[in-house]
Amino acid sequence: AIERYIVVCKPMGSFKFSANHAMAGIAFTWFMACSCAVPPLFGWSRYLPEGMQTSCGPDYYTLNPEYNNESYVMYMFSCHFCIPVTTIFFTYGSLVCTVKAAAAQQQESESTQKAEREVTRMVIL
């Protein structure tokens, strides 16, 4: 979403995505994944077996203050849901507005040309 926003809404002439930009995106993705997965390993919340007891997931259900589950769930909700969703809504909303403005400008240009042709035709005839 951010890449599309930069390319469409903020064209900077000769700006091109390079390998460094890709590496930064990969590093950010790993950072976000680790910031989700690592806290329970150090005691902030915990992992519990889920479903058929063949996989583990964060403990969202226990209200025991010993595990700090409520703060972990609030952290996960705000940092790993609200912020990304807000970013996506902002970038795609801006993208839609930019594309609509460009389409309206192009349509206005075509209508102006059509009007000029009509006036020219009327003058000649």
From TrEMBL:
GO biological process: visual perception
GO molecular function list: G protein-coupled receptor activity
Entry's localization field: Membrane
GO-annotated cellular components: membrane
SUPFAM superfamilies: Family A G protein-coupled receptor-like
Keywords, alphabetical: G-protein coupled receptor, Glycoprotein, Membrane, Receptor, Sensory transduction, Transducer, Transmembrane, Transmembrane helix, Vision
Residues annotated as transmembrane: 21-42, 72-92
UniProt key word Membrane: yes
Domain of life: Eukaryota
Family affiliation: Belongs to the G-protein coupled receptor 1 family.
Annotated protein name in UniProt: Green-sensitive opsin-1
Protein's organism: Culex pipiens
